[in-house]
Write a structure and sequence with these properties.
382 residues; alpha+beta; Butyryl-Coa Dehydrogenase, subunit A, domain 1; Butyryl-CoA Dehydrogenase, subunit A, domain 2; Butyryl-CoA Dehydrogenase, subunit A, domain 3; 3 domains; 4-stranded mixed β-sheet; 4-stranded antiparallel β-sheet; 10 helices; 10 strands; 16% strand; globular; binds flavin-adenine dinucleotide
């Protein structure tokens, strides 16, 4: 077993780190007060960050899932708002590569690679259907060779900038997940209404909106895969998305840990730097250890995805462990900062707010534990 990253993986990580520090970092603090600037998103997209997993033959960078996870960690280390916007766009691009027809790939991937669409959006959640996503009520009714989609989707990440949305809707009365299909819906489709921005605890630079669909007509060719396949498409997308969210959490927590270490060496109490107190050292040691374990889980899940092996259980393990560890680290680093940890002048406050959502979106910690336990009970301990 090889614990070294390959030269290509190291090179990709360095490229992402350098770009994040040069181009994104100067805006990170401003993203606590304003949405990401479309000009910045365009620059990020032009560098290839929105189609990281898309093969070069389709205009993307063709990264492996391991390299992708490393890139997400570097973006999140600098700015969580950018990281989530990039992550969701890549999740949709990955769906198009895996599940789309050549026509769908040509149309929608080129919108991303040409920056005509700065981002893409994933529309699964509804008011009454979050963890229980199969309770979704949006309908897609077949009329001739078109579908008419009606319903409302909430928490649509990237809604402000996406020219297209992947929308999960019910095409039959089949119970639960069985009657769900997936559709690519253009922003300018008649009957699609874009709602206002949610005010969030963190990740304020990212866009989170509602959309309403009122008899939105889409051609049959906008359906991804066959009727009834939509829920599985969404779950396959989320398997990969969970590696991304785990990586976001890891990147944010690493930034927080670095800030805590810096501060502990500078701040003095009782005549010496607080870094010399064992109580502070243990927080640093425990944090670094948990993040190293999180990294190992993330890389394992990403590696399995790259090998086209089963990785659902591993992605959920990586997500639940990385996000919960990251929350603890971000909390402990505020403690190390004392009262200053609560003051906005220090970045640990932003890291704490940004990391909080990672145990919630793309499946809460409770749902990850359900996924892990279900898989172990079905296929055994390995
Ligand atoms: C900032 C942000 C961005 C988002 N972006 C998107 C997006 O782009 N696209 C999208 O489709 N969705 C998105 N979401 C939605 C997100 O995935 C859901 O919020 C999440 O899945 C939880 O659903 P819920 O909020 O309805 O919580 P609920 O399902 O109402 O859960 C409430 C609580 O009950 C627990 N719970 C529920 N069921 C069980 C159970 N069976 N056993 C134990 N505990 C349970 C949950 O874990 C949670 O603690 C986003 C959310 C946020 C906050």
């Amino acid at each position: 077993m090889d614990f070294e990253l390959s030269p290509e993986e190291l090179e990709t990580r360095n490229w992402a780190k350098a770009f994040a520090e040069r181009v994104i970092a100067p805006h990170a603090e401003a993203h606590t007060k304003q949405k990401l600037n479309p000009a910045l998103l365009k620059e990020i997209s032009a560098e290839g960050f929105m189609t990281l997993l898309v093969p070069e033959s389709l205009g993307g960078l063709g990264l492996t899932p391991v390299s992708f996870a490393l890139v997400m960690q570097e973006l999140a280390r600098v700015c969580g708002s950018v990281a989530v916007s990039v992550a969701v766009t890549n999740m949709i691009a990955d769906v198009l590569v895996r599940e789309g027809t050549p026509e769908q790939q040509k149309k929608y991937l080129s919108l991303l690679t040409s920056q005509k669409s700065l981002t893409a959006s994933f529309c699964l959640t509804e008011n009454q259907a979050g963890s229980d996503a199969s309770a979704l009520r949006t309908t897609a009714t077949k009329k001739g060779n078109e579908y008419e989609i009606s319903g409302e989707k909430i928490y649509v990440t990237n809604g402000a900038w996406s020219e297209f949305f992947l929308v999960m809707a019910r095409t039959s009365d089949a119970p639960g997940s069985k009657g769900v299909s997936a559709f690519l819906v253009d922003r300018n489709a008649k009957g699609l209404m874009i709602g206002g921005e949610e005010e969030k605890m963190g990740l304020e630079g990212s866009s989170t909106i509602r959309i309403a669909l009122d008899h939105v007509k889409v051609p049959e060719s906008a359906r991804v895969q066959t009727e009834g396949e939509g829920f599985k498409i969404a779950m396959r997308a989320l398997d990969g998305g969970r590696i991304s969210v785990a990586s976001q959490a890891l990147g944010i927590a690493r930034a927080s840990l670095a800030a805590g270490v810096r501060y502990a060496k500078e701040r003095e109490a009782f005549g010496k730097p607080i870094a010399e107190f064992q109580a502070i050292q243990w927080k640093i040691a425990d944090g670094a250890t948990a993040l190293a374990a999180a990294e190992a889980l993330i890389l394992r899940a990403a590696y399995l995805k790259g090998q086209k092996k089963e990785f659902t259980r591993e992605a959920s393990m990586a997500k639940v462990f990385a996000t919960e560890s990251a929350m603890k680290v971000c909390d402990d680093m505020i403690q190390i900062h004392g009262g200053y940890g609560y003051i906005k002048e220090y970045p640990v406050e932003r890291y704490f707010r940004d990391v909080r959502v990672t145990t919630l979106y793309e499946g809460t910690s409770e749902i990850q534990r359900m996924v892990i336990a279900r898989d172990i009970l079905k296929t055994g301990v390995r």
